[in-house]
Amino acid sequence: MLKPYDLLENILLDIENGIKNNINASVLSKKYDFSEVHLRRLFSFAFKQTIAAYIRSRKLAASLNDILKKNGNIHDIAAEYGFKYEQSYIRTFKREFGITPGDLRKTGKILKIRPPLHLFNENKLGDNVFFGPDIVVIPRFHIIGKRHLIPFGVSTDMAPRVGKRFWENERKRIKDAVNPDVYIGLTRNINLKKKHSEYIPSVQVENLKNIPHGFVGDTFETSMCARFRYIGRHHYYDINKNTASMMYDAIRNYTQNKYVKYILLNDKIHFEMIDTRLYDGVYCQMEWYTPVSEKRRK
Fold this sequence. Notes:
By secondary structure, this protein is of the alpha+beta class. It has nine helices and eleven strands.
């Protein structure tokens, strides 16, 4: 199985090369011997859009050249780009661009297209892939979990270990989890002088009324956050010290870029999230969030 970066890069190239050859998720999953369901999930996680919508947009963008430069009829152009019926092509075209192919020929209107996706060197994290940040708003949510005091020097080693113990054993005592398959690792109360922080491996709950003995509840308030996304060729249990260190280095590089618009408040609170349902036996997917504030203009 290919490394995550190579797999995604090959898929993007195959889509561009197969625009006129009925390329789709089924064809790609067979080529890479990969479950179609998991391929769709992986693509959506990486690029925040469905593979079907992306392929459709790229087909429509490519067809513009034929619409504007050739005198062929719409039916033939639709067929060339894999649309079974002329009317379905016209409807999809209008939904994408707000104008029909025929009216485009008449008006020469300037259209905005969805350009091809690319991966860049900064997306590489060892053999794996790292994206972000996106700026998103996270609604208020509650968690219940186990609180651990973790020294800075061992955080990238200790946090995965206590997280694994929580997931395998302790979470079973939390009966009213909202998303029982989603792990949340919350870090707060980061003490720079004493060089430690509180880490809470947890699951989301609807409220904090039923906290089991020995557990704690916490609330993440509604915040504008930076979201980073990670894909690795390993089990989510194998997010180890080296992987975590590379992630934090990548996040630190972002914070040191003088051109970014936001300040990351990860020294106050941040959390990682793993939806264990997304694990396909090969590729792990993880998200990392922290509140942000806009930089003040000087």
